[in-house]
Amino acid sequence: MARRELQILAALAAGLVVLPAVLLWGGLTYTTAVECVLLAMAGLGLNVLLGQTGLVSFGHGAWFGIGAYAVGIFQLRYFPDSAVVPLLLALAFVIAGAVLIGALVLRRRGVYFSLLTLAFSALCFTVAFRWTALTGGENGMGGIERRSVLGLSLDDSLNFYAGVALVGFVVAAFLLRLAGSPFGQVLAAIRENETRARFLGYPVRRYKLLAFVISAGVTGLAGGLSVLNHRIASAESLSVVFSGELLAIVLIGGMRSYAGPIFGALFFVLFREYLSMYTENWLLYFGLVFVGFILFTPQGLAGIGRRLWRLAVPERERAAAMAQRTVPAEPAPFPDFLQDGEGSALECAGVGKRFGGIAAVDEVSLRVAAPGVHVLIGPNGAGKTSLFNLLSGMFAPDHGSVRFGGRELAGASPSTVCTAGVARSFQITNLFKGLTVYDNLRLAVMARDPHRYSLLRRVDTLGQTAARTGELIRYLGVQGMEQAGAEDLSYGGQRLVDMGLAIGTAPRLLLLDEPLAGLAAAERDRIGKLIRHIGDHIGVLLVEHDVDRVFAIGDRITVMNQGRVLLEGGADEVRGDARVREIYIGSGSQALASRVHPAQVSQELALRVSGIEAYYGKSHILSGIGFGAHRGEVVAVLGRNGAGKSTLLKSLIGLARLGAGEIEIAGQRVRVPVPEAMARLGIAFVPQGRRLFPGLTVRDNLMLGRLRRRGRNGEAWSDERIFEVFPRLRERQDVNAELLSGGEQQMVAIARALAGHVRVLLLDEPFEGLSPAMTEEVFNAILRLKGQVTILIVDHNLDLTLALSDTAVVLDRGRISHHGPALPLLQDLALRREKLWV
Amino acid sequence: MGSEFVFVLEQVANGLLLGFYYLLIALGLSIIFSLGGIVNLAHGAMYAVGAYLMVFVAQHASYGVAFVASPLIVALLGMAIERLFLRRFYRADPALGLLFTFGLAMVVEQGLRMTFGASPLQFAIPDFARGMLSAGDFMYPTYRAGVLGVALAALAATWWLLHRTPFGKVVRAGINDPDMVRALGISLAPVLTAVCGIGIGLAGLAGALLAPITGVHPAMGQEILTAAFVVVVIGGLGSFWGVVVAAMLVGVIRGLTAYFYPPASEASLYLLMLIILLVRPRGLMGERMERLE
User: Fold this and answer.
1) Which residues pair with B20 in a beta bridge?
2) Which chain A residues are Cβ-neighbours of B180 within 8 angstroms?
3) Cβ distance B74 to B46 under 8 Å?
């Protein structure tokens, strides 16, 4: 028993002893005291689902009522002389019912789960109300007696209270231990990030079901005792009003605190008893208090208490979470518990997956040897992430096989894949944000612990897990920050912990999805070395865009393009291969270059950006970006994947966060771009993937593009002018957008942007996913726009992009590495290689 | 016509009436749910407010004034609620939004109880609408036919608003891709307010229309709410016609079971919802909305 647990239990015991005395002194009765204890119990039960697991159950009153009626029915019909036997039977009945209902209801998540609980509760209420023969209908079920236990009559109020208090204490102690058990930790993980919990190998559904059953059981027990308290069971306890009261009790008390529901129940009972002396509308005022808490202090009374405590006892500064980190000079030795992956190769053969009509992955065969670092590279849309998702169990492939360690893993669920020994990290940081670094890493390690389902052990007593977590922390180099909240870490720290979560599950093969994305140079170095070190022991497959580093740390490299494998080999082989260079930087074919005509570029600036620091979440993508675009100029924004090209366009339209910097357009200087305002200032955005509105016609899409962007010195394009550039759209005006071909959709997306006031047109990957014929049509259309509209264009097809452009801005890892005319880059492949390749 | 056939026809007509009654409430709920992502558990309470306002205003002015004023007042209340409260929950933990509207429902219901008392209020059908309409052997109460007519008109108006006006197109685009709508310079905040006003106003209209038929009591909102959710879930989010078909289906099923086996009529609804949510959570015609899962 930990000291803190003992303290809480002692306080609880003291409270239970003192409660009746206090209430009696306040003019209330033992019955009220019992009710207080029982509501607290029901609240604690509900909180297992609500606060701990994050599942909002609207129908918890149903379990309370079922428990009550069950006790009534068992006593009146079968065991009239006992209270204990009906109680135990009722508990068994509730548990059985909860297993059945839980199995059904937990198949859905989020809002649908909550609606299902609402429906279930309404169903129970109707049954209780209408099935008069069984339940007494509207009149309820009376005549229930408390009887006696061990010779003591429960009709004596004090005896009964003592009995209930004892039961309450035991239940509370059980739930306290539950919160601190491995099971409780996993519930918290599910609440914070259910997907990641699955990818760590936890069978999430089983945990949720057990939580559901425990929650229902505790609440049902409270209901059963309640019917003994009042000696009558009524449909009221099954009503929505009562469920609402339970939710209010938990929320007002504090969802995230163990003792919250206890405070909530006390508050509720006192509020009701005292206010109902003055007005019969006490429930209205209680409702107002409830709503007030949600609006202003959703952390509840416990949250208020915590804040007051912190004012009185200031906490040690956690701000410098990273500063406390003691970075070791040498990487720590490879942790023992991470098995060496000798002989566990991943073989994937003929794997394919189509999304809609497009083959994201097309007949890919790949072998990841273990140990060793195998890198997957390729341009945007090559299918790398899709392949990754297929290997890690996020999707099932349409065909093909994925074998690992003698097992077929294609189509297996994420948790199965992880327990088989293949773990993955995520490109977009996917941590348990509300938990500490230590808790995060321990969860990963605990996924292999035989005691991970335990309800009754304290998680601190899992020696093996604790030792391994310590080893992992030292290995990652995050000592000193274990107690920091994962949310408070810097971006680099979060990426490290994300990788740590994958490593902690002791995989035999590690899948890392862009582990270096968005990191500063020093961190890239460190993590690159860590990956190399890991690769010496187990197999690692990583997707990465930082091509320099890929060649430095990779043993074998697979290059993908358009869903297929282009080439596989060692670093030198791949680096020197002409085909690989071509897919990244184009071939400089002459036909297109000959169409380039010098454009009329005025001296006047249409757009100027300076000092831009842009972020994607916490990831610092762009740094110190400054350049200008002249009226009528076409500027190509180039660079390798992850360099920040799309982010630059998105920050101009206000869809990415600016940390610092200024955008100057139409004589206005904007520091905090907001999409609506930027659009009205003349930023016309054509996003990656088109993003037309389905269910609306071409005409409608154009109308929406024009609706709020008329502009004062209207540079909006009329329909006539648009159809001159895109004649195809004239006949298709009344066709629904989603029925058009890819090329036509791209035209509509550009037309939609032009339909309103346009000062600067942003084209993000306009040629992506288009057939050669359509690519040419779109290219010609954009060529017609050249000179008439200022354009910023991002596309990984360098031949086309450079042919269209006057100027090129090259981004490398978030900074501008080159800014000059486009023509030299178009014509001179050696220059292109120098600026854009390795 | 055989009298049995006429009889069944009457039951079906009643079922359809019930269906329209559900539709008025479910439609608003569905639009608010699709666009804002908020499950408005206070929708039933607003329906009750519409009914109570009807009774109250009709006592002090004429039926006609009450009929126009009640839905309008409820619509304005809806807009105020969105502007002041619901707005805070769009990007917050969905649990809080759910809990808030649940609490709001509680407050409104108790408020009605306090203001008007707990016992049901009688509200008589206005004189001009009493009597029966007949077509051969088939007789139908005039008032109910009137309710059907108004409901149809409201439905048509809502359809027209959503499919033929720029506002409606903004709403439909916003349901699908709110960021892109903003990138076209269209601010969604006033649209959301208007949508809540319309959705909640429709619920108020239903309350005003049905006051004479169902009786007026503080808990009337709760009963209708679950039925409305059954309709929305069966019909599917983001689909106008899905909700219409589902409402008719639910209405007729409810009407027929209420006649042939009354104790099971309410239960049948919840069972239907349970089954649909398990087998096809998207509903008959809805879109998959990942942010709600």
Assistant:
1) none
2) 687, 691, 693
3) yes
The distance of A562 to chain B (nearest Cα, Å) reads 27
CA gap A125, A114 in Å, rounded: 17
Alpha-carbon gap, residue A714 to A414, rounded angstroms: 53
Would you mind telling me the total number of residues written for chain B in this entry? Answer: 293
Smallest CA–CA distance, residue B163 to chain A, in Å, is 9
What is d(CA B247, CA B231) in angstroms, rounded to the nearest whole number?
A: 5
What pLDDT, in 10s, does the model give residues A161-206? 999 999 999 999 999 999 999 999 999 999 999 999 999 999 999 9
Distance, in Å, from the CA atom of A440 to the CA atom of A495, rounded to the nearest integer, reads 13
Q: Which residues pair with A762 in a beta bridge?
A: A685, A792
Over residues A713-730, mean pLDDT: 85
Contact A472, A504 (CB under 8 A): yes
Q: What's the confidence (pLDDT) of residue A711?
A: 72
pLDDT of residue A797: 86
User: Is pLDDT at A435 greater than 90 in this prediction?
Assistant: yes
Give the pLDDT of residue A472.
Answer: 92
Give the model's pLDDT for residue B124: 81
Across the interface, of A244, A298, A691, the residue whose CB is closest to B180 is: A691
pLDDT of the residue at A615 = 87
Give the E-state strand segments of A539-682 in sequence order: 539-543, 556-561, 564-569, 605-616, 619-630, 634-639, 657-665, 668-670
What is this structure's pTM? 0.89
**How close B101 comes to chain A (CA, Å)?**
9
Do residues A670 and B147 lie in contact, with contact meaning Cβ atoms separated by under 8 Å?
A: no
Contact A122/B270, CB-based, under 8 Å?
yes
Pairwise CB contact (< 8 Å): A112 & B293 = yes
Q: How confident is the model at residue A341 (pLDDT cuts 50, 70, 90)?
A: low
Name chain B contacts of A694, Cβ cutoff 8 Å: 176
Query: Residue B220 to residues A122, A135, B44, B46: CA-CA distances in angstroms?
Result: 14, 23, 8, 10
Q: List CB contacts (< 8 A) between A695 and chain B.
A: 172, 176
- Annotate A506-528 with DSSP letters as a single string: --SEEEEESTTTT--HHHHHHHH
The tens digit of pLDDT for each residue in B233-290 reads: 888 766 788 889 999 988 888 888 877 777 777 788 888 877 877 777 666 776 655 5
Walk across the sheet containing A407-408 and list its strands: A358-368, A346-355, A399-404, A407-408
Pairwise CB contact (< 8 Å): A126 & B266:
yes
Is the torsion defined by CA of A571, A574, A577, A582 positive or negative?
negative
Using CB atoms, which residue from A130, A240, A290 is nearest to B103?
A290
> Which of B35, B99, B239 is the best substitution to test chain A (most A C-beta atoms within 10 A)?
B99
- Which chain B positions have a beta carbon within 8 Å of A680's beta carbon? 185
Domains of chain B: 3-116+143-279 (1.10.3470)
Residue B12 CA, distance from chain mean position: 20
Contacts of A676 in chain B (CB under 8 A): 182, 185-187
Is the confidence at residue A49, as pLDDT, over 70? yes
Show residues of chain B in contact with A288, CB under 8 Å: 107
Determine which of B35, B184, B269, B291 to mutate to test the interface with A (most A C-beta atoms within 10 Å): B184
Nearest to B277 among A108, A288, A707 (CB): A108
A57 CA to chain B: closest CA distance, Å? 10
The secondary element (H helix, E strand) that includes residue B5 is helix B3-36
H/E run at residue B86? none
Query: Tokens in use for A538?
Result: 């187990």
Question: Tell me, what's the ipTM?
Answer: 0.89
Asked if residue B63 has pLDDT above 60, the reply is: yes
B266: chain A residues, CB-CB within 8 Å: 122, 126, 130
